[in-house]
């Protein structure tokens, strides 16, 4: 049978999956080694590129003359390059690697048509590279999260289809039995992202809708990329690694069910609250506010599940490089989500809207929650795929503390500075006139923007430490080549709960 015919036969819904063959986890890891490492290598490289543009755009916020003579490094281009390098270069490829690895292990089936993932990875990185270069050379659009030239979209869509189809094939050929919580979230994300991306591309760039419908579509897409793409995979990773490393089951299966379906039901509407005060129907704004407040339900039940699973294991959490990042991300998910629900309230939104507070909120979700969880996932995956130990505990500590302190400084600076900015923007004197001029507000914001640049430097140091450690890991010796190899292998097996 030809490879093409074999592929279509494997995804034929009428074909019988047959009796699944039990596969050892080590065999699954080996079968996924090439495509997963391909995604991770490029993800780590894009993380460095995105960090560079992040520092450039951050410094320009309080020092506009910085690199002012470089046209391709103007604020608009540098900031858009940073956003897309991080979102499509780092975050999406981290998702591809972590999601397919978790899915394969939970399905307990060896990878089928792994070459599709390699092809998809190559085309995805070509698309991202062309898109970022297009941004830097002036070909960007004016749509946040979709700044890359529209011609890049078909390349990314083609690559994504190959990856998503593989995830569905893996689930279809899973061993019969229980479907795990992590599988719900990954499958949901695999179906939600193309729906978001295709609709946004068509209604904003290819066949633009008229008037404020474009703004509604833009916020619907931008908000749901975080809530229905980054968040489900982040939660899937937490639900997998937290009980896996601790060697204990998740606290409540039924809370997991409630958390998943309430997330799917409410988050789709939540992004509209960012348009409070805009020229759009009041009922739509009200629906967005209600959905944002109702998001408290999945957040609280998920927080209870995570906390009750980890309670009493503080020492084990701190001893595991994986759980340091995972637990930090899980706690951040709870905080950022509750804060997001509060920001949807009109009395709060009138202060935070159009300020750095909203920017800090975005970083809270994308970095403090999602990215930290991805770091922890990678720290668990790499030794098992390569049969090697991480070479340096010191570099892991440098990475963690630079990332944790760096994002902490950024969140404090942007939230506090943004709140002050918002209060000053709406402040009126006794005669009902603005109390502060625009220039005064900008000057008062400068120290907080400077703290953001300091945090960016710390984050970049952590990212460089991660880069060095990651490639050192790739080139390091196998466990069997260590004098204490059996001890290290036993530790890995213990961490698997074996």
Automatic annotation (TrEMBL):
PROSITE patterns: COX1. InterPro entries: Cyt_c_oxase-like_su1_dom (IPR023616), Cyt_c_oxase-like_su1_sf (IPR036927), Cyt_C_Oxase_1 (IPR000883). Keywords: Electron transport, Membrane, Respiratory chain, Transmembrane, Transmembrane helix, Transport. Residues 44-498 form the Cytochrome oxidase subunit I profile domain. The keyword Transmembrane applies. Pfam families: COX1. The chain crosses the membrane at residues 37-61, 81-104, 116-140, 152-173, 185-206, 218-241, 253-270, 282-304, 325-345, 365-386, 398-420, 454-475. GO terms for cellular component: membrane. GO terms for molecular function: cytochrome-c oxidase activity; heme binding. It comes from the Bacteria. Gene3D superfamilies: Cytochrome c oxidase-like, subunit I domain. One of its GO terms (biological process) is aerobic respiration. PANTHER family: CYTOCHROME C OXIDASE SUBUNIT 1 (PTHR10422), CYTOCHROME C OXIDASE SUBUNIT 1 HOMOLOG, BACTEROID (PTHR10422:SF29). This is Cbb3-type cytochrome c oxidase subunit I. The lineage of its organism: Bacteria, Pseudomonadati, Verrucomicrobiota, Opitutia, Puniceicoccales.
């Amino acid at each position: 049978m030809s490879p093409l015919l074999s592929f279509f036969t494997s995804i034929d819904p009428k074909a019988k999956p047959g009796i699944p063959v039990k596969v050892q986890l080590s065999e699954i890891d080996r079968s996924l080694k090439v495509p997963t490492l391909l995604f991770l290598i490029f993800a780590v490289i894009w993380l460095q590129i995105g960090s560079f543009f992040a520092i450039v755009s951050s410094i320009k916020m309080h020092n506009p003359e910085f690199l002012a003579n470089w046209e391709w490094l103007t604020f608009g281009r540098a900031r858009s390059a940073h956003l897309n390098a991080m979102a499509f270069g780092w975050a999406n490829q981290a998702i591809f690697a972590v999601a397919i690895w978790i899915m394969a292990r939970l399905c307990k089936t060896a990878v089928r048509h792994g070459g599709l993932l390699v092809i998809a990875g190559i085309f995805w990185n070509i698309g991202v590279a062309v898109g970022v270069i297009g941004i830097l050379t002036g070909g960007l659009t004016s749509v946040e999260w979709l700044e890359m030239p529209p011609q890049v979209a078909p390349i990314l869509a083609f690559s994504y289809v190959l990856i998503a189809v593989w995830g569905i094939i893996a689930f279809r050929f899973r061993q019969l039995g229980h479907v795990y919580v992590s599988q719900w979230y990954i499958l949901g994300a695999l179906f939600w992202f193309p729906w978001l991306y295709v609709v946004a591309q068509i209604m904003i760039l290819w066949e633009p809708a008229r008037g404020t419908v474009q703004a509604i579509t833009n916020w619907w897409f931008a908000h749901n990329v975080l809530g229905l793409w980054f968040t489900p995979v982040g939660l899937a990773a937490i639900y997998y690694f937290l009980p896996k490393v601790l060697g204990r089951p998740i606290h409540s299966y039924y809370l997991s069910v409630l958390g998943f379906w309430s997330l799917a039901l409410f988050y789709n509407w939540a992004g509209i609250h960012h348009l409070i005060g805009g020229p759009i129907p009041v009922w739509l704004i009200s629906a967005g506010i209600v959905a944002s407040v109702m998001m408290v339900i999945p957040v609280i039940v998920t927080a209870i599940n995570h906390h009750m699973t980890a309670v009493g294991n503080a020492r084990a959490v701190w001893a595991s490089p994986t759980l340091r990042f995972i637990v930090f991300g899980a706690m951040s998910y709870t905080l950022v989500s509750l804060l997001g629900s509060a920001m949807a309230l009109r009395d709060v939104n009138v202060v935070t809207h159009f300020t750095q507070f909203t920017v800090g909120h975005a970083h809270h979700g994308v970095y403090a929650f999602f990215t930290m969880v991805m770091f922890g996932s990678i720290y668990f995956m790499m030794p098992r795929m390569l049969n090697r130990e991480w070479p340096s505990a010191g570099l892991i500590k440098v990475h963690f503390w630079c990332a944790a302190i760096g994002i902490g400084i950024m969140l404090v600076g942007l939230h506090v500075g943004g709140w002050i900015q918002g209060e000053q923007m709406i402040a009126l004197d006794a005669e009902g006139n603005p109390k502060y001029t625009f220039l005064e507000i900008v000057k008062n914001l400068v120290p907080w923007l400077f703290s953001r640049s300091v945090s960016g430097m710390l984050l970049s140091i952590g990212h460089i430490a991660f880069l060095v450690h990651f490639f050192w890991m790739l080139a390091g010796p196998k466990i069997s080549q260590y004098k204490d190899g059996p001890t290290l292998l036993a530790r890995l097996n213990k961490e698997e709960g074996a």
